[in-house]
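Project channel, design review

CF: Before we commit to the Microvirga mediterraneensis constructs, I'd like one complete example in the thread so the newer folks can see what an input/output pair looks like. Taking Oligosaccharide flippase family protein.
RD: sounds good, go ahead.
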Amino acid sequence: MAPGARLVKDLTAAAVVRLGVLLLGLTFQILVAKAMQPAEYAVFSVALAGSVLFVSVASLGISRAISRFMPELVASGNRRIMADAAIRYVLYRFASLVSVSVLLLAILGAYPLIEDVLQGHNKYVVVLWFATIMLQTDAEALSQGLMEYNLWSAVSLGEMMLRIGLTTGLFLADRLEAETLILCWLVSSGISVIAIISLVVLRRDSYCRAKPSVQEVHSKSSLNPDVQRSFALGVYISSSGWLATSPSAVRLAGAAALPVVPPAAISFVHGIISSAQRALPIHLLAIAIEPVLITKSRVDGKMAESQKILGLLTKAETVLVLFGIVFIAPISSVILGVVARHEFAEYGYIIPVIMAQALGTSYYRVLEIVAGIKLKHQVFALITPISIACLVLVFFTTPQLGLVAALLWPSVDVVVRLAILRHMLDLRGAQRALDFRRLVPLYAAAMAILLVSYLTASSLELEGGGRFLLSLLSSVGFIVLLFILRPVRQAEYRLAMTAFPKLGPYMFKMLRYVTR
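CF: and here is what came back for Oligosaccharide flippase family protein:
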């Protein structure tokens, strides 16, 4: 089988398995939200937000550096260079985990307020759980860098099944609490990390013997430790900039000024949307093929094909998310009350807002890929103050504005930073990867439909079945406007026919209808 065909086959199989992991992840989150006591779920949601912050602070850009440079390290065929890189990465990761863990334990011991939130739960278990999640992120990056898509997908599926099994056992034994749930997650994540590393070590000789096409793009500059450190630092600055207004940081910043229920509702919605986001084109495919885009760009010295691929995936995700927003908005309160807890129903309006913010994070990730190919992550340092300013605004305005502040300022941050980044990264690369000339009309169409939907529901005082009918009509309206606007470019359509030949004639016919 040709390398390209094998890659497509592996990506397809991995995508199917990841969809299974997604469904299991959604099941896990719904099970936890419904089965746990509200107070315990609030503690778990705060701990989960803390895990995201821990991973972001302790990352040092190492995970992204692994996935970015692994193809070229393997392609070099030099065992000494690979061994030196592995030792270097292990030392950096050990230092980051130890230093951030010690700092976190000191903070937990110094602030009684945090101890009150933990309600006597073992802080050492919580910190160890954070560290294990960080290592799990590294294991995923290692698999991605080696293009072992099926390996990571299979291990992820097993880890999720184990986690759900342990959680179900705790629920049946009436012992489902925040700390026991964290212990279950710790065990399942630890096993997955050990499995990935063990399998990679056992297969190390096959990687060294392989002669992939990436050998053709071996670059001495990419094997330079200084270049790798510079890239990791740029990635770290990039992720730190996003961290300031990430949903986890916002939940923690506004938690003191909000009642218990709103932060818990935000935590649940964000968890569900984050899981669903992994099944969308950018996270499912663009991130997975980042090593391929890197090597291809170095082969021809151009980003033309990478731009087209990223542009096509970005448009696909935009259409799916906007369709979801239009469909869910009229019935968001009903969905949140049924799927989660009835106390969350009044906060249904946060679902479309967080979905829009999640789309912004996907765009941000596309720009990270563009910057990674060009080795220009340093530009992210210039926008970090914007995120910090928005987070400060969340902290100081939440007592006056309530939940509005926790939703408004992160949205403002997303729009401002994406506009600045798109301009700074050039962009023949970013302008086609984020083709706003074709995307803005889609946003306008979705906003118009949402406005009409809101006015209709308010004026007619629709409930239940009426809102569901309105949801269906809104979705049909968006589809009609999609065929009128036709956001896909001819070059992207031709690329889809070449890159995804197994989509079938029906899908290509549908894609042709939205191409101009």
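RD: helpful, thanks. Residues 211-218 have pLDDT under 50 and may be disordered.
CF: The longest helix spans residues 3-35.
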